[in-house]
């Protein structure tokens, strides 16, 4: 498995990660599938000590002029030890749907 799949990102755009997969499973009502268990365990393990989840990496560049694969919106911090509000909201949604909250 590509290690990038295990990192949390926001937004996903053209990429994909375990949280994106879990979010899709929650949205179609299949988060209770036993094959989701390991990914849910990994998601819980990534919760920061102070609460929340980090966007561990960006899949885009931040730019002030027009460029390809660039973004002009603030999607929050993307550092492994700092909470990202968007990733946290998705993680909470998934864990609530899975009955883990």
Q: Characteristics of this structure?
A:
single chain, 101 residues, mainly alpha, two-stranded parallel ribbon, 32% helix, 4% strand, globular
Give the helix/strand layout.
Elements: H1 18-27, H2 37-45, E1 61-62, E2 70-71, H3 85-97
Helix pairs in contact: 1-3
Summarize the structure.
This protein has three helices and two strands. It is mainly alpha-helical and 101 residues long. Helix 1 crosses helix 3.
Structural class: mainly alpha
Distance between the termini: 28 Å
Oligomer class: single chain
Largest sheet: 2 strands, parallel
Strand order of the largest sheet: 1-2
Low-confidence stretches: none
Number of helices: 3
The number of strands is 2
The succession of helices and strands, N to C, reads: HHEEH
Percent of residues in helical segments? Answer: 25-40%
Q: What form results from the Cα inertia axes? A: globular
Radius of gyration: 14 Å
Q: Give average pLDDT, whole number.
A: 89
DSSP strand content: under 5%
